[in-house]
Amino acid sequence: MTATPFTLASASLFIIFSALALVPFLFRNQRALITAVFSLTAISSLLSLIAGIWTVRDGITESYIILLGLPDLPFHMRLDSLSGFFLTVIGALGFIVSIYSIGYVRGFIGQRSVTSLVFFYSLLLAGMFMVVLADDAFFFLISWEVMAASSYFLVMFEDERTENRRAAFLYLAIAHVGAIAILLSFGLMAGFATGFEGFNGYTFDAMRKMDIPPSWAAVAFFLAFFGFAAKAGVMPLHVWLPDADSVAPSNAVALMSGVMLKTAIYGILRVTFDLIRVFPWWWGAVVLVFGLMTAVMGILFAILQQDLKRLLAYSSMENIGIILIGTGMAMVFASFNMTALSALALIAALYHTLNHAMFKGLLFMGAGAVHHATRERGMEGMGGLIHRMPWTSALFLIGSVSISALPPFNGFVSEWLTFQAFLLSPALPSPLLNLLIPLGAAILALTAALAATCFVKAFGVTFLGRWRGDHDTPIHEVDGFMKTGMGLAASMCLFLGVLPTFVIDWMDIVPERFLGGKLAASAGEFGWMWLTPISYTRASYSGPVVLLGIIAIVALAYIILHARGTTIHRGPLWDCGFEKITPRMQYTGTAFSMPIRRIFGFLFNVRERIEVDAEHGQRAFPSRIYYSLKIRDRMWNWLYQPVADASFWVARQAGRLQQGRIQMYLIYPFITIIVLLVLLR
Amino acid sequence: MSEIFPYILDGLQIVILLFAAPVFAGWVKTLKCWFQGRTTAGVLQPYRDLTKLFHKDIVLAENASWVFRFTPYAVFGSVVLAGGIIPILSVDLPLSATADIIALISLFTIARFFTALAGMDIGTAFGGMGASREKTIASVAEPAMLMAIFTVSLVCKSTSLSQMVQVIAHGEFILRPSLAFALLAFALIALAETGRVPVDNPATHLELTMIHEGMILEYSGRHLALIEWAGMMKLFLFAALGIAAFFPWGIAAANDSPALFVAALSLILKLTVAGVGLVMIETGLAKMRFFRVPEFLGSAFLFATLGMLSYFMLE
Amino acid sequence: MTIFTLLGVSFIGALVLAFVGDRKFAPEINIVCSFASFVASIVLALQVYQDGPFVAGGKFFFIDAFSVYLVVLTSFVSMTTTIFSKPYMRRERDHGRVGHWGMRFYHAMFQLFIFAMLLCLLTNNVGVLWIAMELATLATVLLVSLYKTPTAIEAAWKYFILCGVGIAQALFGTVLLYFAAEKVLGEGGDALLWTNLSQISGQLEPTVLKLAFVFLMVGYGTKVGLVPLHNWLPDAHAEGPTPISAVLSGLLLNIALYALVRCKVLVDGSLGTHLAGNIMMGFGLLSILVASFSMLRQKDIKRMFSYSSIEHMGIATFAFGLGGPIATFGALLHMLVHSLTKSSIFFTVGHASQMHDTQEMSKIRGLIRGNPLVGWGLMLGVMSIVGMPPFGVFTSEFLILTATMKDAPLMTPFLLLGLGVAFAALLRRVQPMVSGHIPSWQHPLKASHVPVILHMVLVLVIGLYMPNFLSRWFHMAVELLK
Amino acid sequence: MSISLAAQINSILAALILLTAFGLLVQRRIYGLLHLFAWQGLFLSISTAVVGFVAEKHHLYISSLITLVLKVIVLPYILHVLIMRLKIHREIETVVNVPITMLIGIALVIFSYSLTSPIRELSTHVTKSTIAVALATVLLGLLMMITRRHAVTQIIGFLSMENGLFFAATSATYGMPLVVELGVGLDILIAAFIFGIFFFHINTAFDSLDVEQMARLKEED
Is A659 within 8 Å of chain D by CB? Predict the structure, then answer.
């Protein structure tokens, strides 16, 4: 038989499952376990990566049926350009993180058994592959929940810590409710696809052909959107995200934040553009609004965090928001069937998906490296790591630059595309949207700027300055595997930023297939140099030139200035002549984010307390000052606390039924009989 | 010849930027002295400062990392590159397609990003404070900036600067309220972005008020020179940007020498006027408290939004 | 013939065990008997599978796809339960919670209970069905009170009285059914045979059947444990010995539901409306909601899981009420996977509470580290019971929910609520029990691996790759329940 | 004996059964309850026999015999023995609010009358008018179990419910098939032994037979 992308994909699945099967035999020898399983997952991810690239490049669509599941409802699998794209993303990051994990997970040896980590990491990867390959509701949901469950166990990895348990519980609860919502939405669509006389209604193929009345279509869409949003961490369903990502092992988090959230995006795209296909503009508007809210709130939260991984988690929320913004725009344009414009917006969203996978994976791996080296979680205790971990810090810097959307790195390209989409909104026939969408652009701009601030803080406080902790903590650079992983991700960030045209030409098939429109081919001679989504006169950007230009000017300046050698004296800090500056006197992360906190404080529930205990009551001469800061998410008090209280109240009422006296228990059937008889006659 | 010429012109424009920027800065300083009735050091004083700094040795804080040493070059590089993109004399620039206005603004963001990192690198309270404040202001300023720019680009149906100049300068002349609002917003933001009074005071080293100076406190020698120079160029470029976006008349459409001559003259004229305007603002206003700045920029944002709305409503 | 062996084995087993008493080999006899009846049931199943439903013993027995799959399930779960109960009960006795007479009694009554349930499923006579049901109740009443503690006695008394009263209502319903049937079929025994009733259900007098269904619903509903007739269930499960809890929620509830569904088919057939179905949906929904909310505040582990049984019985009842091929398929599947999962959960729960000498969840900790089988068994069991794929419960809930979305979309919010709350309630409690360090008061235990693994593997297989014959079986049953 | 006469006799017996049911509802003394219960059983078996005679259903004689043995002799005897053993024969149980209970009881009778009217129209039996009484007896038994708080009383209530069921069976359908009747009888016998055991357990565990004490198992608040 000839090899097709699908054979590669199924081969990669096979490899992963054989790796899983290997675990029971290897878990006695943990080192071997780590090496074997993670290299296998790396290989399988590589295969999927190739399969994905291949599929999208040639615009292949293959579907197969695996004879598992119910006899009348076997597992349908389908590999088309959309799933191919996401397969690429997952495969790429899966490959990188698997290499990284070999080094990272070894750090646990001697402290605890890593078997469950290894096992569920691979299962999570497999689950994600299956989700994008699934082509019927049943298989999709199975893969979806396998993914959720395995990530739950990953969060539970260090299960003796209560915060892990709490986070894991919250995560799975929200994810499961979301999954039920998705299930219901599929049920609705299956019902309209072909009644419920047989099982064939559950296949996506049937759903593609369904004719569903608009009102029910809206119900189906919003059920699905709710479910996927719960997984993607969209406001206000985001609360699990920071908790889970801050406590889970970093390699797992790199996958979860980097690609698992994206499977939710995949779901939204699949349901919207492939299954339902015809929708009014306001669906897109709703998605857009949620995206904006998520983006800006996410990044504001991120700035206020003191725990590095927590900060990164919130910033993932922001990026999901940005992706949703692109998606929403694409939906709005598509609903007015402006195919070219919606193609632009969709490309922006997809490109950001890819980018975010890369740099967020990189950043989480970096955070993992830092935690691995310092055993320190809060940034306030760190600082000056750039001197001790040069590689990690350099790579982390690349990640920070990329995520702050600075040219010539990749984050910029996708945000630029999103902005272009915004600027094309005047073409929309609806005046309301004309007025509102530019405001959205402004919010996006705010988000981008805040992101830059956030990562100046993250990098500055963690890596720059001087070590704030005690001096004799041994801090060492991480090993080769981890460096390799991060290096790969970093180079991807650069590549995607400098040569976007290749990637966009490659992925142009996706909007072409699902929206019927594609981006204009890049114009001018040296087409690959200029990214011109609409037209040459409309807007253009050239990554290579920016990169080369800056390098050239810097090099020139450097050479000229060093032509006449001036010596460099090292001296103590000047700092306006202040003396005896200790590392504790550096600007802390809390202080750094204080202005933002003051400006946007009304959005949060900030509790700031300063306690002064003074020498015998003379407050003028305090001996010690305590400062405590608590920032809570208002959503807790607005949404989650009430829900919890309500359900416990109901539970108490329900408990009243069971209050012990047998006479009461005898009354219930008595009443029931009487009532039923009265009702029925 | 004709296809080489644009490249030469682009190079020329960068050279102009490099050498005109200090003059412009000097002009502003001189005007200020006149306004405040002081004697001036002359328009060329910035040159002297720069040369002096270039000749000085560098004293580097002992725990400064490579980020600290790389920053001046990064700042310089990004700003100069921006200079090659903004049409100062002519629209027909090969580099102008490199980055449209959004990319241009993020070039300036690169400079700011690395300056802030450098401020935190040496690990002093002032550096961190400066970085924090700088980034805060930037976070509020940039959206407003983009709103102002978007208004213009909506008018011109393009975000590429050359195209904008083309449309406004060489299309038929219309009075647009949207552009008026946008200009107002742009002026306010430009003050913030270039760190002028009332947002920041370039002349102060008073610990608790300095923002930009706080970050570069530890720099010396050529590093400091590069940063100062970049600062001057940034001021110049914002003036040029404002000109290109709002008063592009005179900028050459095609690269024939008379047009370029006219362009040069008009540029000098406009810059002179711009300097006067800037100085009038700086002497007229006092530096405001840091936490008043968001309100200041918020009003800028409001103007920009009004501009956009008026574009949709009135035009 | 197989039928007689099937019933005979368990009945004789009961007698033998009653005489053998608390000898060393009593548990083995118990296991052997259940195994024998399991084999017999397989044979029976094969017969049905080959040549369809048939009547035997002079119309006294009637086996079709619906009943036979429950027969197999019953004998299988009872077999695994006997395997589990061997070490469990032995330890109970060594800790002096059960005396010699208790053990004798336990073994004898266990087999009698199995016999009664099999009779329920095999008989062709509504009256005999009722008798067997009552017999099953009586057999378990004393098992519930086996520990003789005040609470155990209280629980058993409530079980006795409430189920007795309920079942009495069912008898009244049966009388009315007979009354209606003899109009058509003439007097004598034939009027109570499923085989006849199902044929002439169209001609039965609607008004009478309406009345009859009310009493049957309340009667058998009490045994199913539908809210508000459920009050006996948590007490009985929590106070009885764990093997009994396992078979109670694994099997007895199913049997009662089986009876209820049979009656529902008759009644709907005669009314020609969906009335009975709607009533069942109502009860099911109420049970789901009340049970899942009650789970939130439980402290006793077995009590919590008994509420979960109520919830799942509610789901199955709801689905049967909903009707339609997919919902019915889902409901049948749900009965199967629920009883497998729930009994295996009870096995692990039994071990866990023996390891900590308590049923209080706040005292049970660190199971995975303490005894991986028990810990992971409980964790996965709960994952499965809350409807996480790839376990079978997910499959059935998937079918049921999607069918509901089609036929009764307005019900789905309640289902969503119920399932969500149940999920949160269970996970919230189970998570800390399985995770964390081993507490000081935990002592190691030789757990019986086979039943738990066997059940979980089966549930997993059903969820991932349902064998063809099973689904054909279900389809046959669905045809019957049209 | 003609059909109509039999019907009259039967309805008189039905009235007596109903009367005893009410009696059970309000009787305070345990022995009184026991006697009333025995009487009810007697009436029941007689009416079964009468119906059997009228309808020439000879298996009804057997079931009437069963009733006689079981409900009139065995069960009361067992209960008697138990009461002796447990030394509760002097106990006088407080009955909550007799008038209200009576009113509810009467309401139940009316209710079941109106409820069974469709059946009456359908039935061709001479005994059709008595089915309302049967249902009423069942419901009254249930009501008795609800209002009384003594274990023995509850059991008696339960058994009188069974009487009602038997009565329903005979009056509505000239008796269930014999096998069913036998089976039911057997079940009741087993039940009798079981509650016998239970009385002792309860008495030892709670040193009284007051079921009010058995309220430990509940959802705590």
Answer: yes
